[in-house]
Amino acid sequence: MSGSPKGARGLPERRALQGRFGRLEPLDDGKHGESLWRAVEGADAMWHYLPYGPFPDEAALRTWLKERAKLADPLYYAVIDGKSGRALGCVTLMRIDQQNGVIETGHIFFSPLLQKTPLATEAVFLQAKHVFDDLGYRRFEWKCDNANEPSRRAAKRFGFAFEGVFRQHLIVKGRNRDTAWFSIIDKEWPARKAAFERFLSPDNFDPQGKQKLSLSSLSAGAA
């Protein structure tokens, strides 16, 4: 029954999650470090709302990646472009509450090469699909700095429902952070999944790769 307690859920799996435009792979500094540095080098603005970065050089980034790859929560995945095979960003599954069936996507950093691409959308879809379909969680959360308007827009585009703002929730890089909360719950997932799949389907893109229907319109129809 949707929304009902079912006991503890499984942990997110350290395995590749395959999509049409690319895949998610468990983060591995040796495998992904060089291409991640090449993707984010010079893009200092992308780290503004994150509690770490920018990194001064490849060695600093790779040292940080090596430590992050050891973690189980947050569990880091590199976002791999299907054509080039390069890692272009990272996502995580975090704050894993098995007993209550709640999990969050966070620590998202998408390089300029990944931002506003079908692969970026697919990365979030692959996470959600793993959370709901494979692991049976009840609630999938998205949280961001309330001042981070691009992240707020992305959450809504992906079909997350806005729930409110926790004022002065965190201190990030010496700044007060008000945190905006969003979620998808299990009873909403079938409609959200259909919207993602319709957006990502081959017939939604013309020969030049331009989308025909936006995910925003499909998500709105699914709400």
Task: Summarize the helices and strands and which ones pair or pack.
Blueprint: E1 17-18, E2 22-26, H1 29-40, H2 58-69, E3 75-81, E4 87-97, E5 102-110, H3 118-134, E6 139-145, H4 149-157, E7 161-172, E8 175-185, H5 189-200, H6 215-222
Parallel strand pairs: 5-6
Antiparallel strand pairs: 1-2, 2-3, 3-4, 4-5, 6-8, 7-8
Helix pairs in contact: 1-2, 3-5, 5-6
Describe what this molecule looks like in 3D.
With 223 residues, the protein is of the alpha+beta class. The chain has a single domain (17-222), classed as Aminopeptidase, CATH 3.40.630. It is 31% helix and 29% strand. The chain has helices spanning 29-40, 58-69, 118-134, 149-157, 189-200, 215-222; strands at residues 17-18, 22-26, 75-81, 87-97, 102-110, 139-145, 161-172, 175-185. It has an eight-stranded mixed beta sheet with strand order 1-2-3-4-5-6-8-7. Strand 7 (161-172) and strand 8 (175-185) form a beta hairpin. Helix 1 (29-40) packs across helix 2 and helix 3 (118-134) runs antiparallel to helix 5 (189-200). The longest helix is centred in the middle third of the chain and has 17 residues, at 118-134. The mean pLDDT is 94.
Number of helices: 6
CATH homologous superfamily grouping: Gcn5-related N-acetyltransferase (GNAT)
Q: Pairing-aware structural class of the strands and helices?
A: alpha+beta
Task: Compute the average pLDDT.
Answer: 94
Radius of gyration, in Å, reads 17 Å
Contiguous low-pLDDT stretches (5 residues minimum) are: none
**Widest sheet, order of strands:** 1-2-3-4-5-6-8-7
Please give the CATH class: Alpha Beta
